[in-house]
Amino acid sequence: MDQLTIGLLGFAIFLVLSLLRVPIAYGMAIVGLGGMLVVYPIDAAFKFIPTGLFTYTSNFTLSALPLFILMGTLAFYADLGKDAYDAAKAWFGRVPGGLGVATVYSSAIFGACSGSSLSAVAVFSKIAVPEMVRAGYNKKMALGVVASAGCLDVLIPPSILMVFYGIITETSVGQLLIAGIMPGILTAVLMATAVMITCKIYPETAPISSELDTSWKTRWKTLRNLWAAAALFISVLGAIYTGFATPDEAAAVGVVGALLLVYIRGNLTWERVTYSFIDSAKVTAMIFLLLGAGYIFSTFLSTTGVVSTMTGWIKSLELSFFMLMVGIVILYLFLGCFLDAISMMVLTMPVLAPLITDFDMSLVWFGVVVVVMMAIGTITPPLGLNCFVMKGALGDDYALKDIFAGSLPFVFLMLITVGLMVIFPEICLWLPELMKSMR
After folding, report:
1. pTM of the model
2. In this structure, what DSSP letter does residue 207 have?
């Protein structure tokens, strides 16, 4: 049996294991290790795999992952999400769909302090959904706005997915984080505008609450309370943008800053600090498990020629750049229904990254496009992690099907963002290019 056949058979076994609900990381590790033992002598395989695995996972840039995760957890205890929501309510509360608009923009602000969409959804499920429902908002709209606005957290830096993409594609993490700013703002504006237009056409969907205090006094007061979120964002992104610190160093600054904010707000307790570190360690362990298993699996596929064969086959189709991007979008929409974001990246980047570079397109630009598609996967059934986290936070009073139904219109809005980035790559690349020119 030739190596290509072994590789294709291994990939088929991996798909079967996935359908049998074997965790993705375990499936990749089992197939990758088993395949390498078939291809290489046992002693060579057991010498090569541990050495390569250690080298791959000991990349110092990876230290940014647990630090950004910890920073987001501490930002929650610093009440930065509540500050952002109060300010957004005061400024946008009286426009059509004001509470929904406020949720979108406050999620964007919180995204500047947290790199995980799950954190944002957990925070705003408890803050925004009950208030919108009490104000008479359509339940599906209230649920959909919160679940979808949480996706902004993986676009607006710091973003865990951007860091992960940068590591597996060997792309500048600093440029990736900066590249997500403009698309994140664009997506937030599209979401907020869509909410306003919908509620303007159908006023019964979201009645304007007369109880909201939108006086200028309240507006300036709540705006001043955003100093904490602004300070954290500037300290992290400012250090990266100016070249003063690397992403991992800036992440460490962010953790210290978030911890100080928790202390200043009077929310610092030993129990909360302990939970923050333990929770961050659990998430980090899961990511590193996927990263290591993905390395073994992708090495097996590369060694057996599966990756080069698939890449060559796609090239032989002689697709135009736009047709290739349409195919990639469809692929990620499909995979997003069954896989988490990190698993999708590990499986697809060995094939897709070389195709993008063959078209002389920036991997920084492609990283932002991929992260938007990953975000869409968090609100599409049946996997939709954002929706499940929201269901867990809200309890039995809200149906999971209503959360998915409310999120569906926002999928189309994020696809518009992807389309605009494909047509105008400068949306992603302007700030990174400016950053390079300043150094």
Report:
1. 0.87
2. P
